Amino acid sequence: MARNNITDTDVLRVYGGAPADDITNRNVGAAEPRNQLVPEVLGVGTYGRMVYGCKKGGRFALQVFIDSAGGAASTGTVWYSNVSDPDPVTDTDWFQDATIGSIDLTVTGNKMFFGSSNMARWIRVKMVVAVSSASVRAFIRTEGTSVSGL
Fold it and tell me: What is the pLDDT of residues 3-30, one digit of tens each?
């Protein structure tokens, strides 16, 4: 997924941040500074995006921006899996991170979450949007992983 002006390949966009001229491309990819303010509008439903887990150190940082809030009971969660090809939407192959807990999608703002001691093969950021849509941007940095690994 090569794009012009990519300057930081160890930060991946999980939600939003797609180029303005390619807003329908919702795959995980490199975080591009020129598109970092482009939110993704998530309609009512369940979404799962996954990235390779940490390759060393076991630490990651997840930053979530809620540009417009979802309806009541809208939440995000972080999950882990060692299954070789886990389903990104269903919970069957995943274990939820209880330390991070729920990410409140009903309040706008900027939130930062840190994971540690985690060497799972995959990290999934799951969003459940209830009642009304939410505009979201989420970026993750994992130790030892870059977009070239996707």
Answer: 334 344 577 888 887 654 444 444 566 6
Query: What does CATH list as the number for 8-149?
Result: 2.60.120.380
Q: What is the 3-state secondary structure (H, E, C) of 70-110?
A: CCCCCEEEEEEECCCCCCCCCCCCCEECCCCCCEECCCCEE
Cα(146)–Cα(150) distance, rounded to whole angstroms?
A: 8
Torsion of CA 28, 34, 35, 36, to 10 degrees: 80
Q: Are 95 and 80 contacting, i.e. CB atoms less than 8 angstroms apart? A: yes
Buried residues in 69-98 as b, exposed as e (16+ CB within 10 A): bbeeebbbbbbbbeeeebebeebebbeebe
Write down the domain spans for the chain: 8-149
SS3 20: helix
Q: Tell me: the pLDDT tens digits for 81-108?
A: 999 999 988 899 999 999 999 999 999 9
List the one residue out of 61, 55, 56, 121 whose CA is nearest residue 86.
121
